[in-house]
Design a protein that fits this description.
Layout (H helix, E strand, L loop, with lengths): L4 H4 L11 E2 L6 H4 L5 E4 L1 E2 L12 E2 L1 H13 L3 E3 L1 H6 L7 E8 L2 H14 L3 E5 L9 H4 L11 H9 L3 E4 L12 H19 L5 E3 L7 H9 L4 E3 L18 E3 L6 H14 L1
Parallel strand pairs: 1-11, 2-6, 2-11, 3-4, 5-6, 6-7, 7-8, 9-10
Helix pairs in contact: 3-5, 8-9
């Protein structure tokens, strides 16, 4: 059996949590200090010749992570709920996915349904139904992105969508006029295609600066997510929300010992 929610909520040792999220225990203390968000990219098995292996989370691990959070009493919220919350009076967490990969639909819908969680996908409307061209240009393995009908399936399952620019550029490396159009048009295209309000944004690569942040606000977005680790507290800038990246545990002795201890408690 899994530990009870009371065990999972035990105070931390005072040490900062790891950079990457694999299981709840090392983060339990930090999560009580504010409202956490998790970010994922790709779910399911890794194909051959993958360069960035950490962007893949296997379906079994994802299911385990969602079930653990549910059993600890967490409920899912959206970025706007995280930004507007004043405290962590109840256990809440935002589940986010970047890029709109097809394998998230294939491997993520059922674990999310089982945990009764709702999640948000940050989509790249200029690449809908295509592939991860921005990664392929760097030699990464090809992965399909959801097409319009699959995105509607995602929405019909009770999940949400946000914008991730039109083509996934580094926003600080292009002219401001071009960045403005990437940001503004991504929202308009998604709203036109799917007839839902799009108020949440995510900076590609976590790349932004004050000028880019202001462009996101100018475009009418309510929130924007970064790749900076940490929880979001009262007074956090709603256009600079922090997220912990979820991934598999690194294969080192410290993580092996943690795995053995957690297995012993469950036995």
């Amino acid at each position: 059996m899994n530990p009870s929610p009371s065990h999972k909520a035990a105070p931390s040792s005072g040490q900062p949590p790891p950079q990457y999220y694999t299981s709840l225990e090392p983060f339990a203390g930090a999560f009580t200090q504010g409202l956490p968000m998790l970010t994922y990219h790709k779910l399911g098995p890794r194909p051959a010749r993958v360069r960035l292996k950490g962007l893949y989370v296997g379906e079994a691990l994802f299911r385990r992570q969602m079930r653990e959070l549910m059993q600890a009493g967490y409920q899912s919220v959206l970025p706007a709920d995280v930004a507007g919350a004043r405290s962590q009076e109840s256990r809440r967490i935002a589940i986010t996915f970047d890029d709109g990969f097809e394998n998230v639909l294939r491997h993520g819908l059922e674990p999310l349904r089982e945990a009764r969680f709702h999640a948000i996908q940050f989509l790249v409307p200029g690449r809908i139904g295509g592939s991860n061209a921005w990664e392929e240009a760097e030699g990464e393995a090809t992965e399909r992105l959801m097409d319009a009908s699959q995105i509607r399936e995602w929405l019909a399952a009770g999940h949400s969508i946000g914008a991730h620019t039109c083509t996934h550029p580094h926003l600080t490396r292009i002219p401001l006029a071009e960045a403005r159009e990437e940001i503004r048009s991504s929202r308009l295209q998604l709203e036109d295609l799917f007839r839902v309000p799009v108020r949440d944004f995510c900076y590609p690569y976590g790349d932004y600066n004050p000028a880019v942040r202001d462009l996101v606000e100018e475009a009418g977005f309510t929130t924007a997510c970064t790749t900076e680790a940490g929880v979001n507290r009262s007074g956090s800038d709603r256009l600079q929300l922090r997220r912990f990246t979820a991934r598999y545990a690194s294969r080192n002795w410290k993580n092996l010992l943690r795995w053995f201890r957690s297995t012993a408690r469950r036995s």
